[in-house]
Amino acid sequence: MTEDTYHKSRIANRRLHPETLMMGYGYSPAMSEGSLKPPVFLTSTFVFENAQQGKDFFDLTAGRRELKPGEKSGLVYSRFNHPNMEILEDRLAIWDEAERCAVFASGMAAIATTCFAFLRPGDTIIHSRPLYGGTETLLKNQMGAFGIKAFGFTDGLDIASMRVTANAAAAAGRVGMILVETPANPTNGLVDLAACKLIADELERTQGYRPPVVVDNTLLGPKYQKPLKHGADLTLLSLTKYVGGHSDLVGGSISGSAALVKQVKSWRGSLGTQLDPNSCWMLMRSLETLDIRMHRANENAQRVAEYLANHPKIARLHYLGNLSSDDPRKTVFERQCEAAGSTFAFDVKGGEKEAFALLDNLQIMKLAVSLGGTETLVSHPAAMTHSGVARELREEIGLTDALIRISVGIENIEDLIADLAQALEAV
Predict the structure, then answer these.
(1) How far apart are CA 271 and CA 257, in angstroms?
(2) 381: cis peptide before it, omega within 30°?
(3) Which residues contact residue 95 at a Cβ distance below 8 angstroms, ignoring those fewer than 6 apart?
(4) What is the band of 68 on the pLDDT scale with cuts at 50, 70, 90?
(5) Domain ranges in the chain?
(6) How is domain 289-426 classified at the CATH fold level?
(7) In this predicted structure, what is the pLDDT of residue 394?
């Protein structure tokens, strides 16, 4: 959608905050018979006023030409654009502090489409460890079928070890992309984004092509971390998680410069990985409460972490809110992150048997994968989301059989702690 009165983001010299802009940015009631909220536009195609307009709109959508001064783009077909998608993308770009945003049918659709946009047969990709299990599988299996090799690094705080991985990748082919997940799922490991930018710049000098730094920002985004401010070129979200926030939809997004997002959108149109109107509408609804939901969940998570940190049956806590002053993650955390978030992991004393005992005895918390919903969810990554990752790699990155991931919701905090207390008695 083009700039207009309904794209106002300032009052005089005052820049409006995202929480305010989520209530109307990108939409005018005049578009829909005065409807306060955007309707769901359930249509596959759009009618042109005349043949020339159809030609013009398709040329713009296909990227064959740019907008002329004073010209507005239009809608052509819902695989390329539709009103709900355009409004949602406008609003997500505000949260991500980006020029443009593109939304997809899932988080994995966003990641896969981005890989297709920037990787070519024979290329290599540098990535952090651990990654979400689906991403790990995509890089190792599916992308490998196209002759693309993945090179992973485990310590995202040590630029020297990251350079070793970058050099190995560059020796095997053109480095087409740097993909990192920070904080990592499920260990909350951190990656220094300034170091990633530096390595991308160095690769540009040596190979003549600058690989974009792409960040999976799902665990803290879009409220508590802004990767584009710290060296990333593109920031990814699984909208299924905190943005959707109610465990009732699947979606993904990528935000960044207009030029880079345009490349990804071109592939989205070809692959058909766009998000449907109803899910876009539901996400617009959820964006209106994103700030208060994430704030409440973050506060609850801090209380849960404090309880677990002092429990005799907990062996280790992977929570960013209690880093000691000598922890190497602390400097990067304070530079990149605005809060610890509400998803973290902990190890019970023992192994799978003890972890399962805890999970099986919870009565309020739900045993389910995913995260970022209003309800508290717990899972066993080694047996569930990361079960496809080789055991050797799981052990290398600290993803043990004793590890449990928790995504703290917005329930009453005393009830949540009581549930953990009674379940831990069974361990």
Answers:
(1) 21
(2) no
(3) 18, 221, 222, 223, 287, 290
(4) confident
(5) 289-426
(6) Aspartate Aminotransferase, domain 1 (3.90.1150)
(7) 81
